[in-house]
Amino acid sequence: MSPALARALTEQANEIGRRIGILVDRKGHVERVVVGDARRVHLPDLGPRRGGAARFRGVRLVLAPLNPEGLTHDELTDLSLLRLDAVIGVEVKPGGLPGKIAWAWLMPPEAGALSGAPYRVEQVASVHGWSADFTAFIQDLEAQYTKSPHLRTVEGSERAILVGATLGNPKRARRGMDELTRLAGTAGLTVVDSVLTRRDQIDGRTFIGQGKLEELVIEAMHRGADVLVFDRELSPSQLRNIAQTTDLKVLDRTQLILDIFAQHATSKAGKLQVELAQLRYRMPRLAIMTTAMSRLTGGIGGRGPGETRLEINKRRAQERLTRLERDLDQVAAERALRRKRRKKSGIPVASIVGYTNAGKSTLLNRLTRSSILAEDKLFATLDPTSRRLRFPEQREMLVTDTVGFIQDLPDTLVRAFRATLEELEEADLLLHVADASDPEVDNQIAAVDAILRSLALGDADPDPDDDDPPREAIPHIRVWNKTDAADPQTVASLVERYGGVAVSAVTGDGLAELLDKIERTVFLRRAAWAAAREAEGEA
């Protein structure tokens, strides 16, 4: 800042009795002049920040007069939130002459971690003789950011901060954050921090409150994060407000799960189901798009004023939604036909259900000597996969792997995967696989049982007012998997409390007992059913 610019700024501020701010680019051009009140200036929307390796906006803010206590918290917050090159305050002396200077800049993550603040503030006695080469300074600072190990990430991966809020049950909130961390890793995000805040109630505008959100943006800048992931489904207005405040990509838990599903869907049916779930999620959020999308698209050569872009988007989304539902109805009909053929053939079916990443696909591979995809990731399996399992005495059955469940599974996903979950209704046996080595296994079992009850698969007659004859309950076998990685006493306690069979799909331990129980449950039940029908016919 030249002495001439400093004097022009302080003289004007002294004359009008208001604070003045100017935004100067790296070539020294004044881009904007902002006039505030006696206490502060309110900066306008500066648009998106600069991309590439440079992490700063490319402009610095020069203010006059400098407050007696120096740069204020609001000004230092603007430095971080807007990623300014620097904030510089000039004292206004009597007569309007420039006095001392305070200036602040953002520090690299390593230095910020040591100091406990993301910025550094220095004092300069006078603008005269202040000969610092700002261009060299800011280029060196950006180079430090680019080389910082705190900002390095996996090739092609985005850096994310996870955000959660607890309303009085911190233990459950921490479980949710742990699961969100696994979801983020499965989606391909690099998690750099996890923030759990305690609140009396969720903020309707920004989820965690404006002040906490500003602190979060400063943390994101400090850690080089590009994405904020929230551990709840955000409302359309919350998504908009958070995105506008932070200038970061904002995801909620539902979006993250949908993204994982989109990555793992391979079959035509799976892709249709994922697209349907995404469309159902996005449709209510079309209305929050910027007003620029509502410009008329009619004009010369058009009949009438035409539709707004928003209306066109809504109409096209509704048309696509109708088509997807029709295509999935066809998928459901085809699967129903296959199930009818299987039932006619007399081959029993066992469906594997359970929490995501409990080892269901690995168990199917071990039981049937197959080689379907089995990864240590959440939602690695989306489409039902069936394999034959043969027993002695020429007996055989089909074992079907299904999509894994999760706590608070979004309703859009349950509805979209109805064709997949319908497979469970025709099963002769449900194998409920649980990860015995997971400390949260009790909560995972409760989540799966709740979803099964919602699908009317947990009880023999879930609706006593239904006029249809009660459906016989589908037998369940709990399978405690991953015993090779679990504490033996914990496994014994789980079996004692819940029943079931303890196995390791990796080593094969316990599989003989499981096969024996499957055979007795399915074939003895069928024999009893056939005898009852025969006796009924004779009567």
Question: What this model shows, in words?
Answer:
This protein is α/β, with parallel strands linked by helices. It folds into four domains: 3-151, no CATH class; 159-260, Rossmann fold (3-Layer(aba) Sandwich), CATH 3.40.50; 291-299 and 306-325; 346-538, P-loop containing nucleotide triphosphate hydrolases (Rossmann fold), CATH 3.40.50.300. The protein is 42% helix and 18% strand. The chain contains 16 helices and 16 strands. Helix 5 links the parallel strand 7 and strand 8 (190-198). The longest helix has 37 residues, at 309-345. The model is unreliable at 289-307 and 459-471 (pLDDT under 50).
Q: Main β-sheet: number of strands, strand sense, barrel status?
A: 6 strands, mixed
Please indicate the count of domains: 4
How do the strands line up in the largest sheet? Answer: 2-1-3-4-5-6
> Radius of gyration from the CA trace?
31 Å
The span between the termini is 104 Å
CATH overall fold name of the largest domain: Rossmann fold
CATH architecture assignment name of the largest domain: 3-Layer(aba) Sandwich
Give the low-pLDDT segments. Answer: 289-307, 459-471
